[in-house]
Amino acid sequence: xxxxxxxxxxxxxxxxxxxxxxxxxxxxxxxxxxxxxxxxxxxxxxxxxxxxxxxxxxxxxxxxxxxxxxxxxxxxxxxxxxxxxxxxxxxxxxxxxxxxxxxxxxxxxxxxxxxxxxxxxxxxxxxxxxxxxxxxxxxxxxxxxxxxxxxxxxxxxxxxxxxxxxxxxxxxxxxxxxxx
Length: 180
Prior knowledge:
four-stranded antiparallel β-sheet; 4 helices; single chain; 57% helix
């Protein structure tokens, strides 16, 4: 039971991480989490080579520890799927977040729902795997049919709990995106 529940929990954590990278019209330093820059031959997160701050609601300021990294960071952001053009003043890279249009909000809401549905599929697959393991135990004579039914009920309760968490995350992030 434990490994399947842990897999479901990791799915929730992964979904939360995915959602943190979706920008809601406000500056969020986590949108940079997946972007890497080359730093002395090693691909490194931007947070590993610079200070990232949010001086205003719609601005992310990236201050590299080394001046030569300004161009590298700018290039990495341009090459990413952020959809924001970075500006630099020679010492900092500045990202200005425009107000989201209604159309873009709806697109993001669809994307949020899609990622949520994908997470639900992973959770249901874990349920299926857990049920199959219980059936194998029953066939092998390790547990009785009554125990099998109890285990399957417990697996379903755990699955329902995690599906409800995913629904809550979808609803919360969609509300966040749709709020102007």
